[in-house]
Amino acid sequence: xxxxxxxxxxxxxxxxxxxxxxxxxxxxxxxxxxxxxxxxxxxxxxxxxxxxxxxxxxxxxxxxxxxxxxxxxxxxxxxxxxxxxxxxxxxxxxxxxxxxxxxxxxxxxxxxxxxxxxxxxxxxxxxxxxxxxxxxxxxxxxxxxxxxxxxxxxxxxxxxxxxxxxxxxxxxxxxxxxxxxxxxxxxxxxxxxxxxxxxxxxxxxxxxxxxxxxxxxxxxxxxxxxxxxxxxxxxxxxxxxxxxxxxxxxxxxxxxxxxxxxxxxxxxxxxxxxxxxxxxxxxxxxxxxxxxxxxxxxxxxxxxxxxxxxxxxxxxxxxxxxxxxxxxxxxxxxxxxxxxxxxxxxxxxxxxxxxxxxxxxxxxxxxxxxxxxxxxxxxxxxxxxxxxxxxxxxxxxxxxxxxx
Length: 404
Description:
The protein contains 1 helix and 28 strands. It is mostly beta strands. The longest helix has 15 residues, at about 5-20.
């Protein structure tokens, strides 16, 4: 079966199972679980004891090696049960994750993901309308985080299907991601806590996109793949120029690559996009012009062995999964921009299938089948270490890197 861990497949698989179970109600692994339940696993609101020796970690600044004390505190916002938000208080130095709030209702029917808008102190929880049975209500919820540990629902709205939200630096011009191949630009009104539709931009074919706002905010990127069920597949990288005053998008360029793609990752400076080929584990290294949106294939790392790439932790290290045993292990890959190579490094077994990964510097949070895990990356030796865990079924998480 093609990419069981993609966002679109998990989202619709989960929603279908719920409907079959009684109608009571990420292709990336950052959307919905394959489990046919909308109830967290037993103990989901009870913090798991930290593992022995797992009491130290790096802070939110991302410069620690994982061995020093830290005063950092992170709040994890998790979308669970398709329509409820839970909040967990995480302390990397102590290796603890504890529930502090929830369930907080969003009124969504098929919630797919959650995104923290730090500039505007709100959460966006988004999902699908109740297709194919008809319109089941609103699918965008806005929650205020004026009290970071206790979000409150302030507005809900109805738009076309959206399964993710990209947050710009201002928080005023977020971008909704259609699960197939489109962006919807929004303007956020902080006074009314409402979104207005600015415009629509179509990708170049494909499905289950990886999407990014370039660090300079001028370019938006979508990566998709298309093909028959048995192949061959084609990957498309499409860029759009973004009007910084209105948020409107205009298509800039499209680069076509051979093969099928897993989740891609953008370097922190936005210069390179790493696109894994799930058919052979190679990684395409695409140079991105942040001013024009022009795309150039700068190299191909044939022996990377990558299946999915999630997030860059620093200038050279990116977390992802291998083509082999990809569903239950997190791997650190090293990107060398001089030689245009990607190599696999340390691997850490997860508690289950990975749905969503976020990081604050060297502290990684992984939303998995039955847990949210805190993992510390040590850049001095490239190692990964499990520091803490809490039981939860959280298909989508985001992190507020607060400091008490």
